[in-house]
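Design request, tokens follow.
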């Protein structure tokens, strides 16, 4: 990989006295997609939280050559890192459009923000139909789309995407991944993707790492990780 967009070395993090990450190394290429795989409790969500400064962490985190490991979440967001948390975190009482506007709250280029509404509605026509509807009344799939669209309103360089398929019907998941492939190709946004559905994640990703109890135990091109026997057995139905 030429100089990665995101370069993480020796990342440690935890909650109170409980350590969860024990020296995680991972990279995301400029415009690339890295999948972070692993069983429940391996520390995937904690990795994303640590990267955006939401939990205490140690180690070096470099974004486009700049150290960000001592920065506050707000500063990291301003540098173009958008986080779509598990559980989505949309504001239930606000409309779709108001949620999208909040995603752009760090931007001052108002005309470009208006253009981005249309661009995002192009990717997510369902959100356009529901632009005046309260987010809390949207379906699970629509809320996931809104969470992703809101993050994209930041015009991020890097999207941290936590379990976008969680709790959704297979058709809706397919739809979301199809849109993500388009967004990636057209917007050049890099993605660090946490996903239980390893087959889908490996289809979208160029590279992948497997996390086990807070350590990366396997990393490499997505195809190679997908062909690994242990990954096949544990995450891909053991064919
Ligand atoms: P899952 O797919 O189940 O979310 P994960 O790989 O994302 O798994 P994490 O959510 O990062 O795993 O959790 C890693 C460990 O940290 C788990 O043992 C979990 O119980 C613990 N943990 C997560 N959040 C907290 C918290 N807020 N306080 C204390 N411990 C936590």
């Amino acid at each position: 990989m030429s100089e990665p967009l995101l370069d993480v070395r020796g990342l440690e993090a935890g909650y109170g006295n409980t350590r969860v990450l024990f020296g995680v190394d991972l990279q995301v290429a400029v415009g690339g997609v890295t999948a972070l795989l692993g069983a429940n409790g391996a520390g995937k969500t904690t990795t994303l939280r640590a990267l955006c400064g939401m939990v205490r962490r140690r180690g070096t985190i470099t974004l486009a050559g700049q150290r960000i490991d001592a920065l506050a979440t707000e500063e990291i967001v301003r540098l173009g890192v958008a986080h779509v948390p598990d559980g989505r975190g949309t504001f239930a009482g606000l409309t779709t459009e108001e949620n999208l506007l909040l995603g752009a709250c760090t931007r001052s280029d108002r005309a470009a923000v208006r253009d981005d509404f249309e661009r995002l509605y192009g990717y997510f026509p369902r959100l356009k139909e529901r632009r005046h509807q309260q987010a809390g009344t949207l379906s699970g799939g629509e809320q996931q789309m809104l969470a992703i669209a809101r993050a994209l309103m930041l015009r991020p360089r890097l999207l941290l995407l936590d379990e976008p398929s969680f709790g959704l019907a297979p058709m809706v998941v397919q739809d979301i991944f199809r849109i993500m492939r388009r967004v990636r190709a057209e917007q050049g946004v890099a993605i660090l993707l946490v996903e239980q559905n390893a087959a889908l994640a490996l289809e979208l990703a160029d590279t992948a790492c497997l996390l086990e109890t807070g350590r990366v135990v396997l990393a490499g091109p997505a195809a190679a990780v997908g062909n690994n026997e242990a990954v096949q057995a544990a995450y891909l139905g053991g064919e």
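Comment from the thread starter after seeing the answer: thanks! Strands lie at 6-15, 18-28, 33-38, 57-63, 66-67, 81-84, 158-162, 190-194, 207-212, 215-221.
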